[in-house]
Design goal:
The structure is a single chain. The chain is an alpha+beta fold. Strands 26-25-27-30-28-29 form a 6-stranded mixed beta sheet, sandwiched between helices. A 5-stranded antiparallel beta sheet has the order 10-9-14-13-12. It is built from 7 helices and 30 strands. Strand 18 and strand 19 form a beta hairpin. About 20% of the residues lie in helices and about 40% in strands. The chain has 4 domains: about 100 residues, Sandwich (Immunoglobulin-like), CATH 2.60.40.10; about 60 residues, SH3 Domains (SH3 type barrels); about 90 residues, no CATH class; about 180 residues, Aminopeptidase (3-Layer(aba) Sandwich), CATH 3.40.630. Helix 3 packs across helix 7 and helix 5 crosses helix 7. Bound molecules: zinc ion (ZN). Zinc ion binds next to loops.
């Protein structure tokens, strides 16, 4: 009987023209070409209906999963620059052709009409180690600095005679000043005082300085180098209970560099460098009360993407923004039930800017920030690797939280353990609290997408994150 039915079903399906839906790479908006990075091989994924159809791409046979999903990693044909997809079912056949755009040549910018050294005003942003280098310094908005050179869009900002950083002109230089030089301000004193959830170190200064902040690996001190100032500190006042600050000491490692070392008697929980009406301020976050576990903690949850930003999309069309939101709501409910206070950056399918998400968490004075995502691969990466769950952090004091949650996610959800990453992502860059970003699974993989669609998945993920939070609190207190 069963065999008869199956035969009948196949007879019915044969005669249907198969359809092909490619999710990635897609034709660009208002363009008839597909744009991918300049790579030798790349992946292509989507689905075929009905799933009984066979699929080939550029002559390579590609496996179609039970639900019709497919994912292939193929050489990019440099002559034809096309993906030709053919689905066949019995005598019926359909073909889809995706023409690939040629790689675009590098852009060369013209040099600005400026005589160096030149005083410029920054809107904030980020200065790098090199025009193509890593993020290194995050200037305060309206910081005035001397630039002494320019290279392909980037102004060179000397920090000391032997050190410099580079900042992108179009994005972050808001004014070429008429004045040519800056007076070097003198640092006379510092006042340390408790203020709400923070302990503030207030330093009167004539103008906003360039500075570099760094937390020591054992989280026992915060080091701030302030550039182009004269150290003349004769007095540091300590008012009232300044826990977790033990002491503030200073040094001059190079001429016109003031190094402040804030020694802490508990592992650093977070800090913020700020400017207030003629004062340069370093705020140290007080350690929250962990005696009742996560009870009473304010936890910010950020469901990645939303609205017009779909995030990554799976082969059968599941969007990352929907999966992230579902997990976030499950997590918010669970944490509420456990006595935590929850701040969430979106509860609808709405677009929220990356920096607004951080502002929401910081305005609520959240103790912890957790951003929820699902992963995709960059062009050219072979999907045949150990890809699974990963947790990302940027600040050293977020590392323990990342490791604790990674352990529980892998134990509960059983995706491959891809480890934790130090990773320069906007949502994990805030300094005010431990902040992590979870990439639960690869939504672009047919098997992972199918798991993410399961009914209990969001609840299971929420449970794993909650257990990871408990593990973190226990290990932090140790
Ligand atoms: Zn994402």
């Amino acid at each position: 009987m069963i065999e008869l039915l199956t035969t009948l079903q196949i007879c019915f399906i044969i005669g249907v023209t198969p359809s092909i839906n490619v999710v990635y790479p897609k034709l660009a908006a208002q363009d008839s070409l597909v744009h991918i990075a300049n790579v030798d091989s790349n992946f292509i994924f989507g689905s075929v209906a009905p799933p009984e159809a066979s699929l080939s791409i550029n002559g390579y046979s590609v496996e179609v999963k039970e639900n019709g999903a497919f994912l292939a990693f193929l050489p990019v044909n440099r002559q034809s620059r096309k993906y030709i997809l053919t689905a066949e079912l019995g005598d019926e056949k359909s073909t889809l052709v995706l023409p690939l755009a040629s790689p675009s040549p590098p852009v060369r910018l013209s040099r600005p009409d400026v005589e160096f050294p030149q005083l410029i005003e920054l809107s904030g942003g980020v200065a790098r180690t090199h025009p193509e280098g890593a993020y290194y310094i995050f200037p305060l908005p309206e910081t005035r600095v001397i630039a002494d050179d320019w290279r392909n869009g980037y102004y060179k900002l000397p920090l000391t005679p032997r050190r410099a950083v580079w900042i992108e002109g179009v994005k972050y230089v808001q004014e070429i000043c008429s004045a040519k030089y800056l007076k070097t301000p003198i640092v006379w004193k510092a006042d340390v005082e408790s203020k709400g959830k923070w302990v503030e170190i207030r330093i009167p200064l004539e103008r906003k300085p360039l500075y570099r902040d760094l937390v020591d690996v054992d989280l026992s001190k915060l080091i701030i180098d302030v550039f182009h100032v004269i150290s003349h500190i004769d007095k540091i006042s300590y008012l009232g209970n300044i826990d977790p600050i033990e002491e503030v000491i200073w040094d001059q490692p190079e001429e016109e560099v003031l190094r402040l070392e804030v020694l802490l008697d508990k592992p650093c929980w977070g800090y913020k460098v700020d400017w207030d009406n003629g004062d340069f301020i370093i705020k140290i976050r007080k350690t929250p009360d962990l005696s009742k576990g996560i009870k009473g903690l304010n936890i910010a949850i950020d469901p990645g993407h939303g609205g017009e930003d779909f995030g990554a999309i799976g082969p059968t069309g599941l969007s990352e923004k929907a999966v992230n939101l579902e997990a976030a709501i499950a997590l918010a409910n669970l944490l509420n039930n456990k006595g935590a206070k929850v701040t969430i950056t979106r509860i609808f399918d709405s677009y929220v800017d990356l920096y607004d998400r951080i502002d929401i968490a910081e305005a609520a004075e959240a103790d912890i920030l957790i951003s929820l995502h699902n992963n995709a691969l960059a062009d050219g990466v072979n999907p045949d690797g150990n890809f699974g769950t990963s947790v990302h952090y940027y600040r050293p004091f977020s590392r323990l939280l990342a490791a604790s949650i990674q352990k529980e996610l892998v134990r509960v959800l059983q995706f491959p353990d891809e480890s934790i990453y130090y990773n320069n992502l906007a949502l994990v860059r805030p300094t005010t609290m431990p902040a992590i970003l979870i990439e639960t699974a690869y939504i672009i993989f047919p098997e992972h997408e199918a798991r993410l669609r399961e009914d209990d998945f969001a609840e299971d993920e929420a449970k794993a994150i909650y257990q990871g939070l408990c593990r973190f609190v226990k290990e932090y207190r140790r």
